[in-house]
User: Fold Acetyl-coenzyme A transporter 1 from Apteryx mantelli.
Amino acid sequence: MSPAIAAKEGGRQRRAGSSSHHHCLDVRSEAPPAPRLCGDGRPRGEAEAPLLLLPPLPPEAGGPRGCRAELGSVLLLLVLYVLQGIPLGLAGSVPLILQSKSASYTDQAFFSFVFWPFSLKLLWAPLVDAVYVRRFGRRKSWLVPTQYVLGLFMLYLSTRVDLLLGDGEGRGPDVVALTVAFFLFEFLAATQDIAVDGWALTMLSRENVGYASTCNSVGQTAGYFLGNVLFLALESASFCNKYLRFQPQPRGIVTLADFLFFWGAVFLITTTLVALLKKENKELMPTKEETKGITDTYRLLFSIIKMPAVLTFCLLILTAKVGFSAADAVTGLKLVEEGVPKEHLALLAVPMVPLQIILPLIISKYTAGPQPLNTFYKAMPFRLLLGLEFAFLVWWTPKVKHEGGFPVYYYAVVLLSYALHQITLYSMYVAIMAFNAKVSDPLIGGTYMTLLNTVSNLGGNWPSTVALWLVDPLTVKECVGAQEQTCGTTVAAELCTKAGGSCVTTLDGYYVESVICVILGFGWWFLLGPKFKKLQDEGQSSWKCKRTN
Assistant:
């Protein structure tokens, strides 16, 4: 649905490893965890590695350490992951703000590139893992500068963002500048994520390293909630006047500029404390997953993707999600266009959190066997049909709207639709994660699985961008009230208005796109789905990477 409530499988990815030397600038390699499974109803969501894929840790010299002994480290990780969720949440709220300012879907498509860095970070992750200043610390070498730049960037953006969003008096949003700004924002957040993920493995002892994934999931979810749901609620004048004020006022309690300034200051203070007070533990020596450096890591990725079985998987998964693109990327924005308050859509994500925690646990029982893709295949037609149900929901929305907003039963229907969507989405998501874990070569598990998950994420990113871009070209409008005028382009629409007419939509491109997507989706299911399932029958040798030492 909307960026605020739609589940995006392609939010965050772990990185490939890098390797170990002893210079001032070290080039090292580390075996990262494979992706973690965490509930996602937003543009995050990454899978967590089974701990079996982590390198075995050396015995603790001082014996086992309880969680309380490392409570400070656990809390620090939690804070770092909360900070990581803030940029993700803010980026997810901007499309809803743009939609409320009548931005075009072409603009929305352009802004959707903001969500790509977390899926593409495999491209620069080996560099972050490998190059660092040894005296300062392997992870702090990247974490501290990145968070300082993020904080300063947020402070600067707080002085410009109102101008970029438009003043509402003839000046529209500057979508290009917003996209560039938030793309850099997300790029920095993705780089911070690589550093924090790596530091988590060495910050905690062997007995407590499992808490890293808990900190990741809880912290990022909390950060996203603060940056998206809480921000949209406090930014909304109607929400604040209705629930938080005695005297109505024309603006919300906070603006985006206020929010950016506050969190920019928090980033700078937190980073200073980390730089001065937190020391890094001695690095763990890599084991079987060791690679020889940056070049070797990239060669390894290329050799994996050249294997016939992996190449087939990549081509199929890159096209598997085309059928869901209209429903996932456009529906929420259409609901805002039809008058549903954006803060209400964001708040719908809250009751989904328990469901998103429980679903992977239930579904994993069905995907744990030798054929996890069967679950993917069975869930796909139900998710495709929900795309048509979402289109019906958008059509129905203006018909139930009244002066006071929307009735309670309308929100109940939206919530039920979203819950059903989550069930089908997680069935497919968990199945793909299970399959990736099953086929990944254990000798290079982190790198291998990260690559497969990156491709899976890109399979969701590009159809969403294309779906948003196609809404406007597929929409048909007529100029009513002015003869010999059309509404085919922005210039023509302005001429129609100047001539005393108005542009009326006769065919909404969203409905056209919804039908096309479902047809394409079922075509993939019938023609390529069986081939996709057959990948499970490939022998283990088909997935083994031939490496030369």
About this structure: The radius of gyration is 24 Å.
